[in-house]
Amino acid sequence: MKKISAVPAFAVILTAVVLTIISRSQSVSAQVPLKITSTYAAKFVCGAQTNALISANPWPDVQAGRYSTKLEVHDNAAGPITFRKKIILLHGGEVPTAPQWKKFEGLDEDQALEVVCQDIYGYLGIKTPPPGDPWPYINGFVIFEVYYDPNKQKSPPPPDPLDVEGVYTYKGDLPGSTNANASGVSINVVVFPAKNNGHVLH
Length: 202
What we know:
This protein has one domain (35-196). The chain is 15% helix and 39% strand. It has 2 helices and 9 strands; from the N terminus they run αβββββαββββ. Strands 1, 2, 3, 4, 5, 6, 7, 8 and 9 form a 9-stranded antiparallel beta sheet that branches.
């Protein structure tokens, strides 16, 4: 009886494995990275700055009082928009600071969402203060990065797909003050324009 060599069969199996690895490698390398198309950088100021002393050293960054922020985001495009939301909490001084929190989100056509101080405290892991104590003063940026996924989306979003507005409130009296009505309330509304970008999301 003629003996059959196992070498050809092994060669066939090895060739199939190599071709599979090459095919998967090409598939992975063909994935195009996400690309940011526009960015909205919105300022937030929240909590109570309780140091009202003129002799304070160093002098407080902002006036004593209570600050609140409400950011409203609306999808004005004719379809869903995907974006990444980032929080950068600043600590004063000329210190470069990286984002401390990031999350991928999205809105369908004509949907809207809002981000308020309580949300920002939660994102940053700042716990609720004891009853009667004010929320700590914080400030920084909430950044909305609109991105395009060429692997899933047929075309990039329009140049300015979101409406981003900030509502800012300030009241000069401090928590616990016996003269709580002595200070009026200041309200300001800011519209944040889109900044056109073209870099890879990382």
